[in-house]
Here is the input.
Amino acid sequence: MGTKQNTQSAESHLTTPTRLTGAEIVWATLVGEGVSTVFGYPGGAILPVYDALRKFPIHHVLVRHEQGAAHMADGFARASGKVGVCMATSGPGATNLVTGIATAMLDSIPVVCITGNVSSKLLGSDAFQEVDITGITLPITKHNFLISKTEDIAHAIRYAFQIAQSGRPGPVLVDITKDAQQGTAIFDFEAAKPRPYRPHPMLKVEDSGLAKAAELIRNAKKPVILSGHGVMESGAMEQVRTLAERAQIPVALTLLGLGGFPASHPLNLGMMGMHGESWVNHAIQDADLLIACGMRFDDRVTGSLSTYALKAKKIHIEIDPAEINKNVKVDVALVGDLRAVLEELLPRISGRDGSAWIKTIEASKGDVSVHDIKNIPDSGHLYAAHVMHDLWRITGGEAIVATDVGQHQMWEAQYFHHEKPRSLVTSGGLGTMGFALPSAIGAKMACPDKEVWVVAGDGGFQMTAAELSTIVQEKLKINIAIINNGYLGMVRQWQQFFYDSNYEATPLVSPDFVKLADAHGIRGRAVTTRSELAEAVKEARTTDGPFLLNFMVEKEDSVYPMIPAGSALHEMIRRPGKNPIVESPDDK
Amino acid sequence: MTHTFVAYVEDIPGVLTRVASLFRRLNINISSLTVGRSERAGLSRLTLVCEASSEAGDRIRASLYKLENIVDVDDIAKAPNVTRELALIKVAANPRNRAQIFDLVEVFRARIVDLTSESLMIEMTGVESKIEGLIEILREDEGRILEVCRSGKMTMRRGHHTSSVLRAMGKGPDEKPLPEDEPEEASNATVDIEPA
Ligand SMILES: Cc1ncc(C[n+]2csc(CCOP(=O)(O)OP(=O)(O)O)c2C)c(N)n1
Ligand SMILES: [Mg+2]
Here is the structure.
């Protein structure tokens, strides 16, 4: 990393129009947009930009694979609420970003990706490392730009920031030709401002809609709030809580909604959907009113649509008009920013007695309540649920957890109780394996004072394990928990349930992860029994520098409950009776 | 049902790809698409016709609006409107059988815009059914039609207001349904032969 020169003048560019190269304009504009960290990987077509970096007060994180750069920018954005920025060269650099961009798109995460491309006269000529990355990313970005003139760079980047974080957020890609980076233009930050943000013309919150929603809430006997990722994006945590408390309505959360409503809140039912607890899904199926807040009725939360919540009226509060009536037909649509809509709705909501309904749900928990498994006797086996549970207890629930995709992700969602928004970083929409480690790096860069944990499977961890070096190079204190079950566990589970236990291509040989960590200069330790668990977690937390824990968990454990894809929300495969992690009510 | 979207889009590279990509992703076939400059500087106007379920209309319109380069979208399926299509049809015709085609052109209020000893070109503007009627009759004689070029539909709401004014007034696409009998205009009455 070069020493920073002239950073003083770099900032004065923002106030005084100056002639700069396109490469300098890239950084100057990023500085103007408040960016201090960029995740990237250099190459020929972006070299002019890299050459200009030393003049600007921006920290560049060198990744080991561009997919990691996109996930880091994504994790940065998820943890901080700010726009994450990543950078790559043309051709393979740009295509390596694709999975990360799609991950951000499916979860509505504000990310700006900057790619270099060949010189404008070579566009479309199959020149060395030329790909049509704006064409490739068209369906997985909110918008993208192909910039071939130096004077257009500042405006495109500023516009990209506006698009990425406005309305329903999402990734934006700016592809800049090499000649545009090398040319010069007058940089006028103020003049490069995009036109004022234009809200989607179909946003619609009518008085009659608010009145109808208030009436439905008033008359409901069995209402449930469905709280999604939009709660975080809109900053509507307080408003959702006020609604729930005032009208005594229980709250079910989507995977990405976890943390938007405190797990410890008495009205919190927990996660809904494919791996939601039975009482949550039953409550939704029995409800007479669903109040969907910033969620999109994804198939993973509805199960089969033809049997979904048939007794319930539905109120949908959502910022994206294209989501209304997409999967579930609703009775009242309040199309706008969740927080603003709730602020208009709340004055119309008065106190309500919800105790009968809440009692019914409580009773339906029966003896499968697993919300606290601390007293389960040690059978000598190590279950992933124990790992998650102890991790939650020992960290006081304060850590940011970045998970990968698979069984461990669901166990995390079930047993790590998220109290605060932006404390869970997980790929819900695309379900991208390899997401945990890089997104945790992004989260740690965004929140250096927070404790950050990676929770990954033995499979997904190997997809992006090269980023261990990035942790070391950046001297980051990140703790890594590998849930090592020797299988691509979630797929193995599907094979067990739906394919006659034909474990084709799911048993997995892995390196000794502790030795792998050691090769990177990262300390680590394997954990095989529950008795070692708590102490190992404590060691990881108190060790200076990163630490890897290799949890050798029960190999053929499954995530319960489970709704088979396409089944009704209440048709769950329940925990087998003798499942050792089932807690009875008198186990407290 | 048939949906007809009219959109104002920025007149810059790649916009059509974005529109087309949206329909491709939804697996909806675009049956007709016309694009050209509009009354607004820097904006093109397009008319896009497709078959999709009646509920899909709002979602398609909302998704079109999510495209950054789209400024205005109107779904005019049910609104009173004027829809026209332009067709150029080249037919084989010699001095002996030309007269028959001249009569046909007269009946259909089309016109002949190119004439050679072996062929002639018919220009016709009208609703889709009218154009199809002419083509069908020309087809009765095998081998007569040499080429057909159709513009696709162009649509405009009837009445004084443009779509953007209507929207500003809070009147979205949910208009009174089209009267059963759409009045036919005789705007293509003149038949003047341009010099060949
Ligand atoms: C990139 C990618 N490839 C394939 C999948 C399909 N998939 C979902 S979960 C899973 C198994 C994950 O195994 P592991 O990382 O060991 O986690 P576990 O389920 O065992 O906890 C696979 C292969 C995916 N989600 N992402
Ligand atoms: Mg595994």
Observations:
- The beta strands of chain B are 2-10, 30-37, 43-51, 70-75, 81-92, 111-115, 119-126, 145-150, 154-157.
